[in-house]
């Protein structure tokens, strides 16, 4: 067993370093240490098992999650198609924004059809010049003002990334408010290889959501 040389060395070092009043003979120090080792090993093993269990827990994710919104599916970062949403009479998408200064929160509603066409038209018109990067207006979203103090309001972000209101952010063209980490999370669930530049990540999220809402026809 490969552990032996190490344990033996440890034992040797420890037995020599023990102060003599507490170890009258070599044999007694040996007993003391071997007992100590016997006690120490299982706890080390338990700790290692706990660490392994924790690591497994972290990396193992369920395939589905509780549906965070009626317009979202049970798959992380995947929303329903427009066809499905209209068939289910979901015509308005809501979300919460918060004033950066006074923290007052507001519920906002977007008309799904109207806002989707606005974003889609923008993409169709500008995509050639985007060169796979989000334009300035996507990187710096035009945000609404707080009714109380006139400061800017930002979309509320949930603690858990799986509960991000992607469709609300898309329709309000507020994807640029997401952190680098949140954008990478979205893209990792679309099987997009990790990329660094934020304007590239934002661009990919817009195109990804556009495709989810209106998938291309497969003949
Ligand atoms: Zn305010």
UniProtKB/TrEMBL annotation:
It comes from the Eukaryota. Residues 82-213 form the DUF7086 domain. It holds the Pfam family DUF7086. InterPro entries: DUF7086 (IPR055513). PANTHER family: EXPRESSED PROTEIN. This is DUF7086 domain-containing protein. It comes from Stylosanthes scabra.
